[in-house]
Amino acid sequence: MAEKAGSGREPANEQAIATMYGAMRTEINQLYTKITELEMEVSEHSLVIGAIEPLDPSRRCYRMIGGVLVERTVKEVLPAVKRNKEGIEEVIKRLVEALEKKKKEVAEFESKHKIRIKRPDSEAREEGGRKEGAAQGVLVGPAGGNE
């Protein structure tokens, strides 16, 4: 973020930019979460399809519809499960497109406002390395100096 100047308006402007940026990042995270959730559903649908496809089409099968377990046949359930899976895959495709669009928007926002992200993990590793090196210097110094 830019440094705060003496003007009272700049921090509010920086705060607005930070808020907007945070909201954009939150949207991206929500898209990732929803895509992951839907991919799990596609996986579950695939497992169900794989389990009931080889069965006799006239065999009894149960399907949950709106919280109610309904008795059907494999012949009736299989096409419905396949349609649901295709529909979910289409939604995933649209969400991925929205995610890419949002990522580009965030990248443009970052470059426009000169936003740089501080990575806590990399900073901790760098500081840890410096502290460890400094500690070694302190420990090694007195042992060799015999004061």
UniProtKB/TrEMBL annotation:
It comes from Amborella trichopoda. CDD domains: Prefoldin_2. Belongs to the prefoldin subunit beta family. It comes from the Eukaryota. This is Prefoldin subunit 2. GO terms for molecular function: protein folding chaperone; unfolded protein binding. GO terms for cellular component: cytoplasm; prefoldin complex. Residues 85-112 form a coiled coil. Residues 117-147 are annotated as: Disordered. Keywords: Chaperone, Coiled coil.
